[in-house]
Amino acid sequence: MGTVNPINLSLKNGKIILIRCAVRGDAKQLLELMFKISKEKNYSLVEPDEFKETIKTYRLRIDKFNKAPGKLYIVAEYRKKIIGLVQFDNFDFKKSRHNGFLTIFISKPWRGKSLGVLLMKELLNWSIQNSIIEKVSLSVFSTNTHAISLYRKMGFRQEGLCKGDMKINGKYVDSVMMFKWVRM
What we know:
Blueprint lengths: L6 E4 L5 E6 L5 H14 L14 H13 L4 E7 L2 E9 L9 E8 L8 H15 L5 E7 L3 H9 L3 E12 L2 E11 L3
Parallel strand pairs: 5-6
Antiparallel strand pairs: 1-2, 2-3, 3-4, 4-5, 6-8, 7-8
Helix pairs in contact: 1-2
């Protein structure tokens, strides 16, 4: 099962947040957070008018991630409100199950406060302890320089660049492919 033990951690502003696995009861808050982030357009592949998720689909995703050994869905909460999340999916195929793909989202008011570092550390600790996972991969818009800086700080290296892969507000944006070996 993709699980981590709940842990209280301190942000650089001194606020204590809880990092834990997502549960079915989080579906509504996760849906609201993801829709809010989709409206920013610069951090999510999905545009607000394309957002088709429902509480039911979020519950099913949470169930799937919590039951599978190569998947992880963790949330960060402050005073019972979800402020960030990390999803890690290895897609269950024999040839690629050693490698998973992560996505991380942080609510706008909580960016720049070390929440991304704490979430990434928890994901990487879990992946190192997971006997299946050997490589952690991600894709990020080249315009998201703060995220790229975070990933480099966490030991990720650029693996590739997909030129003009995305079109944001009428402008072509590259996708940066990054990775980190946790076991080889």
